[in-house]
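Extended Data, panel c. Modelled sequence:
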Amino acid sequence: MHVQLTLLMVLMGMTSAIAADEKSMTELFHKYDMIMDQKKVEFIDEVFSGRFLRESGGKKQLVEKINELAPMAPKSGPEISWRKGLKGEVYFARFRERAHIKSKTTENEGSEFIVIKENGKLKIDGTISDGD
């Protein structure tokens, strides 16, 4: 009986951790979407890791690159799928626009990201592919 209770407690803890990560991942990509589509660059520090910012030439240069992007047409929310990596607090996330899903484009559409926990918060640390 004691073993069953312990196992149940461990499973409940894992479930709540996954739910917290799911919520954090959704919030992260909502802010990412706001940066890329609406040019809300004030969220850059909340979305991108320090290493990503440094490798992008710094925050100022990243803001300039984002502001140079063509404006995006309004769209419905993205589909986000993710999985936890094998080592540490590394996650792999796929971000696809709903327009791609509805038009039944190939599975490779969308962007894939490396996401890490930095100071207890999920942040984008790099890209695996940029999709379109």
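The beta strands are 79-84, 90-96, 111-118, 121-129. This feature is highlighted in the accompanying rendering.
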